[in-house]
Amino acid sequence: xxHAQVYPSAHPLVKHKLSLLRSTKTEPKKFRExxxxxxxxxxxxxxxxLGLHETRVTTxxxxxxxxxxxEKIGLVPxxxxxxxxxxxxxxxxxxxxxxxxxxxRDEQTLKPVxxxxxxxxxxxxxxVLVLDPMLATGGSAVATVDILKKWGAKRIKYVGxxxxxxxxxxxxxxxxxxxxxxxxIDERLTGEGDPWPHGYIMPGxxxxxxxxxxxx
Length: 216
Ligand code: PRP
Ligand code: URA
Known about the structure:
The chain has 216 residues and is α/β, with parallel strands linked by helices. It contains six helices and 13 strands. Strands 1, 4, 5, 6, 7, 8, 9, 10 and 11 form a nine-stranded mixed β-sheet that branches. Strands 2-3 form a two-stranded antiparallel ribbon. Helix 2 (28-46) crosses helix 3 (86-92). It is globular, with a radius of gyration of 18 Å.
């Protein structure tokens, strides 16, 4: 099967806001605002192919054809950094269901460890957006999509703010049917000789969870 499509945003607002987000000068309050805003812009791009059905609507002047979304959307933030991506997107699609998956990366092995999963017995949604700011090694994204597929989710899209090429390749390899919507694709992951621990996105923005929650 061919690899899934990767859609790095070309939108000037995304580029502008991502640069602010990366800056060491950006404090947690502003950082959270930017995560929220960029997430809305990326979700707009990721949902451009949602299905519609025709309706009728009565304006003050006349009855006219209208449109309604046919698809039920599920938002799945990966805890904890993905949480900041939910609120803005949810405002745009208030009937979406939100299901949380709790994963953290073991700092030594970089392998994801699952600590929270309370999905209902079967999906009631037709499209799932996986939300996580950082696609680094790809371990967390692959583990989340594994869980969602076992659950029965048929159509899954990944939405992230910044990705390393290594993480994109890993997600594409494991789940070639999952399109990947991104704010930016960075150079690489950190390794030997870098000032940060291994497995961080370079130049990235540091630790997305710590920067949102002020825990760094
Ligand atoms: C970060 C990030 C992703 C993961 C990406 O979470 O939000 O979930 O790392 O790394 P990967 O692609 O190598 O798996 P982290 O483990 O730091 O947990 P947190 O969100 O609770 O801070
Ligand atoms: N998690 C983060 O928060 N940042 C990275 O660069 C990699 C993983």
